[in-house]
Each structure stands twice: as structure tokens, then as C-alpha cells.
Design goal:
Layout: H1 5-12, E1 17-24, E2 27-32, H2 37-47, E3 51-60, E4 63-72, E5 77-85, E6 91-93, H3 103-113, E7 116-118
Parallel strand pairs: 2-5, 6-7
Antiparallel strand pairs: 1-2, 3-4, 4-5
Length: about 140
Amino acid sequence: MKEDVVKEIKKKFSEGIKDFQEKSKKRVYFTIDKKDLLGVIEYLFNNLEARFITETGLDTRAGIEILYHFSFDELDKIVTIRTLLDRKKPEVESVVSIIKGAEWIEREIYDILGVRFKNHPNLKRFILAEDWPKGKYPYRKVK
């Protein structure tokens, strides 16, 4: 593993990084376009051997944000990859082909935020009742 993963990521994906924030010495955020997502995730997980922590979804003023959190335990650093989705058609490629452990959290985000994860192997309800009203997502902000 590289000593400075932040420099490594910046160098490898310099053209695809839209924003970078260093919240603290231990916590950094990269904002990327969703078209670059699988390449970045694959690089962090397979090449840099980052540990996948979880994936989160948020409804923000700018749109639906999907955040992928990775830990570099030996370096005591957490790297978050953020991508912004259009609220009217929130969809992004599933990372399950790279990280099998992301399957359930993507189903949960689909259920509560309505994000469609393209090429997900089993995208269906996860926590809401089967009779929950179609098109109603409990974690979406009221417009």
C-alpha cells in the first residue's frame, strides 16, 4: 500500500476529480462524476487495498449524494468518494461487481431514497413493507 493514498488518488484521477476536501488529517472527501465511479472504486478497493466501510445516500439541496467510505487502517485515514445524482432520475452504476459487500446497502438506499443502481444483481425492496406506496421514499426531503 502507498504511504500517501491521497496523492496517489489525485495523480491517478486528476481529470475526474471535481472537488477535494480535507476535513482533518484522518478524513478526506473526493467528489467525482458518476461516469468515473467504477474506475475509482476499483482502484481504491483492488489496487490500494482499501477496506470498504459502507455506502451512504443523502438528499441535499444539490441533489442525491452517494458516498462510498473506505478505510486505510494502517494509515489511520478514511477516504470518501462522493458523487452527485439528479434528483429527478437518481441512478448510478452498482459497485457490487467490485465489492460484493455493497449489495445490501445499495438495496437499502434504493428502498429509502429511490436511487436506481444499474446492473445490481438483486435490486428489490430491503427494509420497507411490500405494500409501501410506489414512488414514496422516506429519506427524500419534502419538496
